[in-house]
Amino acid sequence: MAPRRAWMEPSRTGQGDWLLTAGGRWDLEAAGGLARELDGLRAERDAGPQAPVRLDLSRLDALDTAGAYLAARLAGRLEREGHAVAVEVRPEHAALFDAVRGSVGGPDAEAGAEERPHPILDMLERTGRATAGFWREALDLLAFLGLVTVTFLRILRRPSRLRLRSVMFHVEQTGLNALPILGLLSFLIGVVMAFQGADQLQRFGAELFVVNLLGISILRELGVLMTAIIVAGRSGSAFTAQIGTMKVNQEVDAIGTLGLDPVELLVVPRALALMITLPLLAFYANLMGLLGGAVMSYVTLDITMGQFIRQLQSAVSIYTFAAGIVKAPVFALVIAMVGCYEGLKVSGSAESVGTLTTKSVVESIFLVIVIDALFSVLFSFLGV
């Protein structure tokens, strides 16, 4: 004789409990009709509010995942309605029912899922989490800066530990190979500034002061700032990607296993190379920016190269140039430190490399602009 189809019979016990006895085959085939039957069961209506419920599954002929899900959902719904639910299940079905009930969740699972946090509270929570994360990141970066500084000092005591070949390799990668793109962008920035300045100053008959505008803005601010931003996007991201890929391939762990210092081997050569190249790149960017401005001044204002140079000499001094170029080593250290720090944070996935590479570029540019603002405040205080 074939087993009966799935069924559920409610009844009352002598102790006042509401007994739900299940039998038949609780499987996927019977799930549709069984779900409608279970949804129609209401303990408040048939047994009274907060009446204890016994769910007897010991008479089931068969139980699969679909049937276990329906039973677990019924038990969870009754618990959320305030009933104490006791479940009896056959030993061979216990493991499946417990696993499904654990995935469905306890009595507060659906209630918690249905709750929607208040928009303002949700915004405050996200703001708090972001603020706490920002300070943790700042403290970690500060600790990494201390580690890099200690490693630098250790190398100064024993210069033979410095890998000059690695430093020169990164000087070529971060400096020499960056000249074309940096020169083109700096030239175009000078062209744009000269054109915009000429358009405004011509209204007052002060065309010659375009040279003053170009000299002060490029030598003091824009030259080194644009250089740092370009280097952060080009070299800082490369540092993160290179070290991150080594981390994914467990090469960094192998370096530590061999008794070598990853900071000394990977971070210091990159930081030192960038501190050498960024001031030189900033000087090159200044020249190309002024050249672009001189070309545009000649085209739009008929200012010859000789006039441009004479006016530039009277408009700027060595302090103007020094106020810009002194920022370059600081920017370089920040870019290299952030790029290497994020690279060392990469976990064992390729996705992590891409995420932290993007993060390193954003952090580097943010810190460069913040430090540039601090330099401006300091120079204003010193009267430079």
Summarize the structure.
The chain is an alpha/beta fold. The protein has helices at residues 31-39, 43-46, 65-80, 91-104, 109-114, 119-157, 164-174, 179-201, 210-248, 251-257, 262-301, 305-315, 318-325, 327-344, 350-382; strands spanning 7-12, 18-26, 53-63, 85-89. It has a 4-stranded mixed sheet with strand order 1-2-3-4, covered by helices on one side.
Features:
single chain; 384 residues; alpha/beta; Transcription Regulator spoIIAA; four-stranded mixed sheet; 15 helices; 4 strands; elongated
Describe the model:
- The protein is of the alpha/beta class.
- It folds into two domains: 7-114, 2-Layer Sandwich (Transcription Regulator spoIIAA), CATH 3.30.750.24; 135-382, no CATH class.
- The chain has 15 helices and four strands.
- It has helices at residues 31-39, 43-46, 65-80, 91-104, 109-114, 119-157, 164-174, 179-201, 210-248, 251-257, 262-301, 305-315, 318-325, 327-344, 350-382; strands at residues 7-12, 18-26, 53-63, 85-89.
- Strands 1-2-3-4 form a four-stranded mixed beta sheet, covered by helices on one side.
- A hairpin with a 5-residue loop joins strand 1 (7-12) and strand 2.
- Helix 9 runs parallel beside helix 13 (318-325).
- The chain starts with 6 loop residues before the first strand and ends with a helix.
- The mean pLDDT is 85.
